Amino acid sequence: MFFERPESGERAVLVHLNLSSEADREDPREFEELVLSAGGDPVHYVFGQRDTPHPRFFVGTGKLAEIAEQVRLFDAEVVLFNHALSPSQERNLEKELQCRVLDRTGLILDIFAQRARTHEGKLQVELAQLQHMSTRLVRGWTHLERQKGGIGLRGPGETQLETDRRLLRARIKSILGRLDKVGKQRQQGRRSRQRADIPAVSLVGYTNAGKSTLFNRLTSAEVYAADQLFATLDPTLRRIDVEDCGAVVLADTVGFIRHLPHKLVEAFRATLEETASADLLLHVVDAASEERLDNVEQVETVLAEIGAGEIPCLEIYNKLDLLEQAPRIDRDPEGRPIRVWLSAQSGAGCELLVQALGELLAGEMVRHRLNLAPAQGRLRASLYRLGAVEQENHSGDGYVQLQVRLSRKDWHQLLAAEEIDENSLLLDDWSGSDGLLEGAGGVA
Asked: Are 342 and 353 contacting, i.e. CB atoms less than 8 angstroms apart?
């Protein structure tokens, strides 16, 4: 049987089993939040305990009768399992319960379908749905599985199910081709940023950790942010300026979740490459969550899956306003920032995050005292453009003495562009403070 999906507000019976064979169990509370995010109305939660799943119904016959009673009692329209069901188990359950049955993967796919906004996001969601549907296609066409003989019943040589599978494969192939084109466009964008030497920073974290709120706070963007799972689906990139580093590209990405369906990871490969190619990851953690340590572990698992496990990472412990603690930066024994405590909602501590970004992205900073001839005005202007000049002093013979601070990379790039020997510029002794300009910042 095949059941059409109502528009919204479906009454749902939720099912969760504690399986002895499962080492890493799902969280029932998180599953309820997923249902609410999908627009469902959880009317009852059925819990149970088994050693292993039942091969036909996943649950035992006694528990199946209990679920059927709750469906009848609450007039439920859908039964949602906090587990992965096989196609045959879904079909058997729908036949017994006389309503639609969805597993955890199907529910997450439904949420993604609701949240996709961009053309790329819609293609990615459709691909994941089609790949998931391909194994369940028989459910809707059981009456057409085989040709029937007799007058007026002889078919064209191909069953409806076979036709549908062929069309499905063609659509999947078409979407893969279009996503491949989008992926190449993203690669071109990343290559241009690399040529311009612009660092890329990607926000990652468990779903609903506050990534989009922090992104809006740092960039003054207006991406959708809400207190719900998977509020962000389509990636957004913005440019920000960081002291001692200059321009930085910041990316807001889809949130992760425990046991993220592999079909989604495959479909969102082009999007997740923004994370895998970043120079620095900002791992946003809900500091007020009781499961924060487990969530951190889940995110690290997904990062390893997409090839981003070795990228330098700065932890951002968000929602500090719920803990009533002061913002701070935690550092390693060498003094490098490893964790920033802040509140993206109130903005408290965000300046500490920008400071930590500058320290991590700028690389090794150098400070030099330079003696520039009158003909070296272009080099002086470049130093001002980089914001590297700390002090300036003019001598009587037209020479300019500068005290500069900038990254070693920018310093060597300037010398190479001007074809100047470093030793010819360096000044051993600062000649004094006559005519000193404090805090000069513009291009002279």
From this structure: yes
pLDDT confidence of residue 330: 92
Rg of the chain's alpha carbons, rounded to an integer? Answer: 29
The partner residues of 13 in beta bridges, in order of sequence, read 44, 79
Please name which of 76, 91, 9 lies closest in space to residue 45, comparing C-alpha atoms: 76
| CA distance to 214, 217, 238, 443, per residue, from 345 (Å) | 7, 8, 19, 36
How far apart CA 271 and CA 185 sit, in angstroms, is 11
Instruction: Give the percent of the chain with pLDDT over 90.
Output: 17
Which pLDDT belongs to residue 222?
Answer: 67
H or E stretch at 2: none
**Per-residue pLDDT averaged across 304-321, rounded?**
88
Confidence of residue 317 (pLDDT cuts 50, 70, 90): very high
Give the three-class secondary structure for 91. Answer: helix
Tell me if residue 294 falls in helix, strand or coil.
Answer: helix
- Min mean pLDDT across 187-201, 294-308, 421-435 is at 421-435
pLDDT at 440: 34
| All residues at 6 or more sequence positions from 263 whose CB lies less than 8 Å from its CB, including other chains | 105, 109, 128, 131, 132
Confidence of residue 271 (pLDDT cuts 50, 70, 90): low
Q: Rounded to an integer, what distance in angstroms lies between the CA atom of residue 260 and that of residue 295?
A: 12
Report d(CA 386, CA 364) in Å as an integer: 16
CA distances from 420 to 74, 349, 372, 403, 412 (A): 81, 42, 11, 17, 10
Asked whether the beta carbons of 431 and 393 are under 8 A apart, the reply is yes
Residue 98 backbone zone (phi > 0: left; psi -120 to 50: alpha; other: beta): left
pLDDT of residue 24: 65
d(CA 79, CA 15): 7
Identify the H or E element spanning 158.
none
pTM: 0.67
